[in-house]
Amino acid sequence: MHFSNTEKGKRELNKSREIYANHKKLVMVAREEVSYQTMKKEFYENNVIKTPDIVTYLNKNGIDQKRDGALLILRSDIEANLDDEKIRQIEQTTLKYFKDVVYDDTAKGPGILSKYREEKIEEMLKKYRKCQLVITDRLHGMIFATITSTPCIALGNYNHKIKSCSETLEHLGYIKYVDNVEEIEENIKYLMSNEFEKYDNVRLYPGCKASEILDLFNTCDYFLDVNYENEIVDATKEAFLHNLLILGFNQTIHNRKYVLPNFVFDAHDYQDMVKVIQDASHLDLNLDRQRKMAMTQNVQDYRNI
Prior knowledge:
With 305 residues, the chain is α/β, with parallel strands linked by helices. The chain has helices spanning 7-21, 33-42, 84-95, 114-130, 139-147, 161-166, 184-192, 210-219, 235-241, 270-278, 283-294, 299-304; strands at 27-30, 47-50, 70-73, 101-104, 133-136, 152-155, 175-178, 222-225, 245-249, 264-265. The protein is 40% helix and 13% strand.
């Protein structure tokens, strides 16, 4: 979310605040921290939550193929922040390391019929999968690089969006944010001299049979209680009974009885949750601690039964 610090921007902010406040059931979703804090401050009468850009839920790695050359995805519209001199500098730097440098843009303008849109998106994603490096000043230039496991140097533009969104992707290693073109060369060297794990995402089950749910409880190691809505199938208890390590957010936790206190995080501290998941060396120990804590009953517990 971005409102310019101009008279027009302030008018639009006030107008939006008034309209949104009249809709008490409106849930506002921010995809990065700066917008999230702005929305909480300015739209305090509404429910504001934060989730990564929805496109990152896709996995578009495709079939392994040889990569070659660099792809420049640079703005050419009124929101462009790079002048001709900086663009030439980017070109010259890139050509020192790549024989083929191709220009394109994620914004294709109006006129694409809905029946062709998936086809056009897939054409663009193929270009990402074929190149060794992407340099971009577009947010979805960076996001497309993310979901295709393409090393990417993302340049800041006129607002905070790219920088703030890149912070949620920095753990991948192959997404590098820079504030100015002088930083590009050192990042090309780094990205081209290292190998990175392929992008992996979370598989969603918007509709799930009871047998599928049971299979997930039987095969998974972790249960993340991060759903803001009501709990289904008594999921936290089932996760405990199936010996899954349970982690959640203070803002979403449904049944603290089964969750170790130090595995309940603030939603803003999601990276701490990520660290626990990434370090599987203590999984068995933590499961044992979880069992002992949850099975500890007192007299009042039995009276409640």
